[in-house]
Amino acid sequence: MCDMIDSQSAEKISRMKKLRRTLSESFGRIALKKEDSGFDEICVTKMSTRNCQGMDSVIKPLDTIPEDKKVRVQRTQSSFDPFEKPTNQVKRVHSENNACINFKTSSAGKESPKVRRHSSPSSPTSPKFGKADSYEKLEKLGEGSYATVYKGKSKVNGKLVALKVIRLQEEEGTPFTAIREASLLKGLKHANIVLLHDIIHTKETLTLVFEYVHTDLCQYMDKHPGGLHPENVKLFLFQLLRGLSYIHQRYILHRDLKPQNLLISDTGELKLADFGLARAKSVPSHTYSNEVVTLWYRPPDVLLGSTEYSTCLDMWGVGCIFVEMIQGVAAFPGMKDIQDQLERIFLVLGTPNEDTWPGVHSLPHFKPERFTQYSPKNLRQAWNKLSCVNHAEDLASKLLQCFPKNRLSAQAALSHEYFSDLPPRLWELTDMSSIFTVPNVRLQPETGESMRAFGKNNSYGKGVSNSKH
After folding, report:
1. Which of 86, 313, 339, 405 is exposed most, by the fewest CB atoms within 10 A?
2. What is the rounded distance in angstroms from the CA atom of residue 54 to the CA atom of residue 94?
3. C-alpha to C-alpha distance for 120 and 270, rounded to whole angstroms
4. Which one, of 18, 26, 73, 7, lies nearest residue 279 by Cα?
5. What domain range includes position 273?
């Protein structure tokens, strides 16, 4: 009997390895279509593998799924965590992830009237998009466990880019986080979301080519300690909510909001980056991993073991980042472990019970006897600078709700009175229009060094660690 089980296990592992290699090799089938900035739109041909669904089930329906068709995720047991850290580069394959790179190729000759086309070099020796030698590496921006980010330059049009080079192993193939990030960003076009220009696949590496953005919010705040200019906080928060509203309307969760993943351009544009943990919530799955958001920005429901979350997961992170921009220090800087992190949250918001948080006692890690019983406080008692900005405390309190369903949505937050003094035209902008195209909308000078003197180590995603958080 043991021999039979061993034989079956070996056969199953062999099939999984073959499928994983097939999944990785599919990145090699890249067709290029020119796009507005001179970079190509990435189109990957469909592949045929066992248990592999088309990308149509992951990205295409997101714009068309009606509200009453949302899929509610049930907590069930699963032996496979699709969000396992990329350093482990698991060999097991989940059917949902098999679908993540099956893009539809665009029909030849059909061009969107909104997109300006550029002619590519005709010489066979000229650099072309989709090729490793099309980009020149200028300097290293950061390095992590499975990826290195470089500042680069396109040899085709001379524009600066960020090259996220993901190291591949022959046995492991392409990390699922890279597949997920590429597949989701392919379908997201918004001024407040980092733009994916190109994908380059070789035997040794997978390179994601992003627009180059000068710094991130973490570095911006480090350069301006003590809290940011109140008007700049408002513009950064508006852009963050604008980008989140866009992805949430497409049933996509970011799942890893933190200052390091919010890029800031030299003009003040904020862009959501690092979609390695993002998830299309319209796709049925067994369970969500609760090890998702960096500890300081992780909501209490996830800390307590909940895996039945929705867009409210991201909104807790928004509240934490909002407070940090105003106050100049992290809202809940846990120093030890999850228990310590929860204690810091309950100290301000109050220790939850069934009256304040229906269902909290059913969460896996909630043991009332483990927590000190705190009463809720006014947020200004914890963060005094909230009282200096009109309506800031009210907005923060509606985002930092322990009970997930009480948190304000991104769309509702954009309509909060906190933003009432901004120009009405900001709510009329098209997705790809920057808020800085509206007259009189601009960043105010911060004290200390100028934006152009900021550090250069942008994260651009998982695998690149340059943060103290």
Report:
1. 405
2. 14
3. 31
4. 73
5. 215-453
Report the range of poorest mean pLDDT among 28-32, 40-44, 79-83, 143-147. Answer: 79-83
Residues 230 and 181 in one domain: no
* Residue 381, phi then psi, degrees to nearest 5: -70, -30
User: Which of the following is catalytic: 256, 274, 301, 314?
Assistant: 256
Other CB atoms closer than 10 Å to residue 264's CB: what's the count?
25
- Count of domains observed in the chain: 2
Give yes or no: residues 201 and 256 share one domain: no
Task: Tell whether 25 is covered by a domain.
Answer: yes
Tell me the pLDDT band of 167, cut-offs 50, 70 and 90.
confident
Residue-wise pLDDT tens digits, 388-421: 999 999 999 999 999 999 999 999 999 999 999 9
CA distance 166 to 169: 10
In a domain, 141, yes or no: yes
Same-domain pairing of 25 and 134 = yes
Do 295 and 200 belong to one domain?
no
For the domain that residue 230 is a member of, what is the CATH number? 1.10.510.10
- In-domain check, residue 359: yes
Q: What is the largest CA-CA distance in the chain?
A: 76
Instruction: Output the pTM of the full model.
Output: 0.69
**pLDDT tens per residue, range 434-458:** 999 999 999 999 974 434 334 444 5
Residues 92 and 189 in one domain: yes
Task: Please report the pLDDT score of residue 131 as a whole number.
Answer: 79
